[in-house]
Amino acid sequence: MDNVLVTTPIDIVTDNTEYNEYVHDANVYWSDSLYWYKSRCEVRRFFDTKDEGYVFGRLNDDAYDLTPTFHISRFSVKNKNTGFGSKVVKYLQSEYTHITLWSNKPALSFYKKNGFKFNGLTNVLKDETYTFGEWNS
């Protein structure tokens, strides 16, 4: 699996798949929030010969933290249930010692399987409930 840092707004919508719609919506959110222009924010495209995925994330703002927290803002892979998403998470876990996220209900079991803990803290956004989760090395 390879990955590249994406440095400019992207528009990859080529069909009506759920994946492309999700990545497009993430890009719009990222652009509207001006994250493209903020330091310590990044978008990575992960890919191999069979799959691809995007992680939109931010490092915490504490420049003095020796073990920075990476917050997954948006994450999706093209083909679910193939193990590719877990490979991406394992890569992130090898790069960071603390990862946080807000998970929607369908993704909770995926993140739990990959070692994330959920404390019950929730947030409702656009009629969907998200649960706060974190992973520590």
Largest sheet data: 7 strands, mixed
Derived from helix and strand composition plus strand pairing, the structural class reads alpha+beta
How many beta-strand elements?
7
Shape: globular
Using the CA coordinates, give the radius of gyration. Answer: 15 Å
**Which percent band covers the strand fraction?**
35-45%
For the termini, the CA-CA separation is 22 Å
Give the spatial strand order of the biggest sheet: 1-2-3-4-5-7-6
Count of helical regions? 3
**How much helix, percentage-wise, in residues?**
10-25%
Secondary-structure element order, as H and E?
EHEEEHEHEE
Average pLDDT across residues?
89
Low-confidence stretches: none
Summarize this, please?
By secondary structure, this protein is an alpha+beta fold.
Descriptive overview:
The protein has helices spanning 18-32, 84-95, 108-113, and strands spanning 2-6, 41-47, 52-59, 69-77, 98-104, 117-125, 128-136. It is an alpha+beta fold and 137 residues long. A seven-stranded mixed β-sheet has the order 1-2-3-4-5-7-6. Strand 4 (69-77), helix 2 and strand 5 (98-104) form a beta-alpha-beta unit. The longest helix has 15 residues, at 18-32. It starts with a strand and ends with a strand.
